[in-house]
């Protein structure tokens, strides 16, 4: 309901009358329609490597499936928040970081106008799945399409970069999947069984890394696995039984991201990942996201499924990925797209563990050395490999880098220097070489197939190594630590590296100082073979949980639901803002704050001064917002509400969000923003509602909270 006189027909009529002669003039003077300018997205494809053989032109009737990715807003800011260990709620991700819905709609309308089929969209607007015949795709994107062969498999692939209308360059990140031979590879290696000490059992490796007797099992934690197929239930139960692990199939969840996920004939990687993440943390759950194959388009669908699950999967705090491809061989758009997905997942409070690769400093690159992507992404913890030998009593005898030489075709710990991602601020310390780009790996664990892991695959015991084994085992260790943190009323660890690098050279890690992966040699402190070393889990747990009890959880705002009525203190508001009218209704109780809604030029404010203690670890502002409007435009923000943080003198420190008539809703929606950056400061929570001269917009807010812990 409006506070204003509702008759605003004059404004509408004025707009119509004013525009009528303009339209008539355009009709008389416009010449033939000219083609809209277009922009080529060169980053959406990579040059054909020498292992791709061109067979000829693609058949016009063949079907192509691809993905269009949209640009996140304020991505660098999000990464900085992730590096500080912040968790960003979905509502805030949508308000400040995810692409805008109207941009996605413009893209969809254009795709459909070209005769293409949009097969799937997502609530976060990060990507759109598209399908069409070669003829339609060739015409819409302006590309040359060929039939190519890679290792005996044939693909329909683009040879030239796509182009789109230039007015979409502002928000389109790239077009992915046009070269479907670009696929990820598992980082695992199988070795025939011999009579030596390996394959190691869960009890042997957890003892070697001091992960026994911790008083936690990973209960209350869930680890996601991204892989193409599901393991056999019979392999899982056999593995647990052989290892004396008390696990249950009721803790294993299988999500088919696409149809046709194989459920028989396991290949080994899926079994390794699930068996060791569930075995290391026997009280935890494992949620497997099956993508049917390892094409990047389907893996991206897996990322989307994980992101969309986060609000309904509050226990999901770890993600293990034992896949990758040479960073420099992938298109720029593909790396940027996946980096947005990974930042979204890390921003949701998930620790992402990724295998660093099994070919040393070569990493299966088509030419020269390189690093593996996803391992080089700044939002993940890259896990390298070691060679671990144990004494007959199960203690560590030796541990060196998983070593190799030359092109490392026989296997070795993946590591090196990214050619794409900038050096993160947290990647510092003894041994870190000078430079401006990301280094890989971050940490390590046993990976040499000769000192490999016990795995059950298709009813057979196998000895498997590779950094594919290191990553899920690390994920299990993090599940143990996250349970201990939960027991101490602390939040999940989330992004790990900013917490781990300061611990380099301490008793939390065992430094690996010998071995080489081709170009790089292990040494004191950080190195590009084993990172900062392997964990001493018992010590690391105590460090990351701490011995000091956490500050009590507290809600800092006074009169948060305005139920003190006309005595609004400690709120300070424009006259008439604190309101008890039954329509529009408050969210709860009798009172609410009602900004604007007059239909005339007007400004309302609402603010409260609060001090956030320096001793808290986090501070989150929550409130509920409902927006009603008489505006009919879908493109112009005539009336706005700004949510700001100001200092005690009233100077604006940050604008957390800006809402407008374009954000109209039918009910109250939760809005959440981190104020952790303002610990130890006295600030004002400040709302400013502004209306233009006509057509009301009402901003209704209720049930505030500033929660700290």
Q: How do you describe this structure in short?
A:
The chain is an alpha+beta fold.
Name its key features.
709 residues, alpha+beta, six-stranded antiparallel β-sheet, 38 strands, globular
Describe the structure.
The protein is an alpha+beta fold. Helices cover 22% and strands 29% of the residues. It contains 13 helices and 38 strands. Strands 12, 13, 14, 15, 17, 19, 20 and 23 form an 8-stranded mixed sheet that branches. Strands 28, 30, 31, 33, 36 and 38 form a 6-stranded antiparallel sheet that branches. The model is unreliable at 4-32 and 547-553 (pLDDT under 50).
Rg result = 28 Å
Instruction: Give the amount of beta strand, in percent.
Output: 25-35%
Instruction: Name the quaternary structure.
Output: single chain
User: What is the helix tally?
Assistant: 13
- The unreliable regions are 4-32, 547-553
Strands, count: 38
Distance between the ends: 39 Å
Q: Helical percent range?
A: 10-25%
Walk me through the topology:
Layout: H1 9-29, E1 38-40, E2 53-57, E3 63-70, H2 75-83, H3 90-97, H4 101-113, E4 117-120, E5 127-133, H5 134-141, E6 145-150, E7 153-158, E8 163-165, E9 172-176, E10 185-186, E11 189-191, H6 202-208, E12 222-227, H7 233-243, E13 252-256, H8 269-280, E14 285-290, H9 296-309, E15 316-321, E16 323-326, H10 332-347, E17 351-355, E18 372-373, E19 381-390, E20 396-401, E21 416-422, E22 437-440, E23 443-446, E24 453-457, E25 460-465, H11 467-487, H12 497-500, E26 509-510, E27 534-535, H13 537-545, E28 554-555, E29 572-573, E30 578-579, E31 592-596, E32 602-611, E33 619-629, E34 640-647, E35 652-660, E36 669-674, E37 682-691, E38 697-708
Parallel strand pairs: 12-14, 12-15, 13-14, 15-17, 17-19, 19-23
Antiparallel strand pairs: 1-8, 2-6, 3-5, 3-9, 4-5, 6-7, 10-16, 11-25, 16-18, 19-20, 21-22, 24-25, 26-27, 28-38, 29-32, 30-31, 31-38, 32-37, 33-36, 33-38, 34-35, 34-37
